[in-house]
Amino acid sequence: MKLAAAAGGGLFLGFNWSDTTAAPVVVDANQIAAGSVKFNSYLSIGSDNSITIISPNPEIGQGIKTAFPMVIAEELDADWKLVKTVQGHLDNAAFERQVTGGSGAVPHSWERLRKAGATARYLLVNAAAAKWGVPASEITTADSRLVHKASGKSASYGEFAEAAGKLTAPTDIKLKDEKTFKLIGQSVRNVDNKNIATGKPLFGLDFYREGMLFAIIQRPKAFGFKLKAVDSAAAKAMPGIVDVVTFENSVAVVGKSTWQCKKAREALKIEYEKAADLESSEDHNRIFSNLMDNGEATVRRKNGDVEAAFKSAAKVIKAEYQCPFLPHSPLEPMNFFAHVREDGVELVGPTQTPDRAREAAAKITGFPTEKISVEITRQGGGFGRRLSADFAIEAVHVSKLVKAPVKVIWTREDDMTGGTYRPAVRYRFEAALDKNGEMIGYKLRGVGINSGNPTREDNFPSGSVDNLLIDSVEHKSAITTGPWRAPITNFLAYAEQSFIDEVAEAAGKDPVQFRLALLEKAKKSPAGDVKYDVDRMIAVIKLAAEKSNWGKKKGVHQGFSVYFSHRSYVAQVGEVVIEKGKPALKNIIAAVDCGIVINKSGSLQQVRGGVVDGVGHAMFGNMTFKAGTPDQSNFNGFRLIRMNEIPEVDVHFVDNGISPTGLGEPALPPAGGAVANAFYKATKQRLRNQPFINEEAFKGIS
Amino acid sequence: MALFKLTINNRAYSADVEGDTPLLWVLRDNLGLVGTKYGCGIAQCGACTVHLDGKAVRSCVLPVSAVGKAKVTTIEGLSEKGDHPVQKAWDEVDVAQCGYCQAGQIMTAAAFLKEKPKPTEEEIVGAMSGNLCRCGTYHRIREAVKVAASKTN
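^ inputs. structure came back:
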């Protein structure tokens, strides 16, 4: 980014960017080496044989900035050592879907990236064939080199970049046979490892610009409050403060450093008034109970005759599960840079949805979108929080009001108490078993607070039960919610997989066999539409059972869980042992079908990290409220999992050659169920609420 | 405001700031050393870890006025060429996901290994559990500390 080269300026003493050790390293996508030939939106090849690949999607830790270029380099037969990866800016003409969300970037772009690489390779081969006077079909490529074996001629890609750039690209291009992949499937290190390990300015919070002001914003302290009056005189008089401005329900303290703004914010005197109910967690429990029994439900899926099935049942099993609100807690708090100029707007920062930030800026400033640029920085985690544009909108408002380049910075407390949480949900499950222990009826009601549809009505076990009813009720609250990594399924999967375990036990069946029998039924005589791939689900179940030596380990209590989300399938076995009389979670064995694995190293960590995230939040994650105000505001009150609390995570990928189906989220949903079911085996106590640590069964354990 | 003279990464710096400004924000906002990260501001996450006379400290709760003559080392100065054994191990093990916490993790690990060059796994876990990684790269952090220890004399 251009930014880092010039900052501070007259504001700071003893600070000279030109001789600081913090040299800018982030390559601007528009500054690709001179002499490079641009083959398409993604790829340029230099006459010096350098290859630059633009990765257009936001990098939040999912590894896209390494994986995307790998796909192009594979089809190009590029020498990976010569490939330089750069982050693309928002460019709707060059790229589609510049979004990080829904584990969808790789499935969306797989073909496009392959074609980009294959087309460039084709052009290079044809340029060489013309020059050498040999048939293109006789030229082979490897490691960024063209070789014609019969004549002994060879050249680097760089030598033919210019000539190839003048040829017309074919409309139809043959892609490699997946079996011949050389780079895809290997372990390739994160392209930013060196920059990360040496502290280079990569992240949004690292963005500084000459003359830039800082802004710390006071938002209403309770959900349900609106701004009534502000007395900013004391704050304005504090050192370094340039201005205090108000927009919507926010008061922004604008000044010359983060710390000065943070201190001055404490001197604001603000009055609020009530605009909506100020809810407490006790209110939510009451609302859940009421709506579960009396709410007007929206039917999500219905098969067969549920009431008749339950009437004829030999056994009925019923259980309720509940989860709390959760903040996303990316380690880099929300922040964004905006410069609203007279001729346009410049936006820079960490966003999963750059287009949304631009659209919002256009609305606020009245500029057409082509006058608004968005640079995407590396992002210190996202987990869905950066899908919202609220922090970018704030930066635009403040920059517009103070007529200067401004970076809005959220403190951790702002980030944790600022809303857009994973919604709180309660589920009620009911299952009807016949005298043979077959599940003949299944009911699920989800009650959510600002959750939208808190069910995934077409997921397993739908399709495997003849009589089924899934419905939901929603309560509207002033507490704001939004997508949280593996939205809804991050909790639903645990609740459902724990309940299935309860049903299997009531039926007197092994949990793995019980699930497999249901899936066989979905295959042979499906009840309504089946919108997941039964065979892929069966395969991960069998692989996890095999790799965990299911049911055969002495002294180890195993719990099973399997889930389909974001197009991929993951089964997990949790292993609990009793140590000194207490249950301890030792291992999670994960079997994953995400189709072709692009980067083995990145994918392995993505699964491990997803499991750690799932286990950590199931165990400890809790956000509660009093009169609309969150009780937790930082990592002293809100507990994140630490190194001494992780299980070992053993990962196995299914090798089926299917095009990649996404991996940023799917490993998370099954984790909670694997833990809860293993814990049950060890203690005979069900964990029906998150966080587990607050359950009666866990008292005195850790 | 007062002028504070600081020795950071063996170089002299000065900053005109209020004495209660945490070292973290002086590094970031005043000196352009942005490798040291802000995560929580209350010494709970470790993203802001720097060395003060070789010892790992949390720069988010260290007022600049308390630094005095102590030598500060930040991630930018851990090694001249980015080749400290811990930095190399982080690359070899391919630790980072988002990467935001890793400068703090590396600084904690480097100070720890200086004190304890041949740690047991239990000691590694004990030393590293004060640093949060929201992406959950803990297995690899643990592994990278082992790798770094095996390559340090």
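The mean pLDDT of chain B is 97. The CA atoms of residues 120 and 148 of chain B lie 13 Å apart.
thumbs up if we can close this ticket
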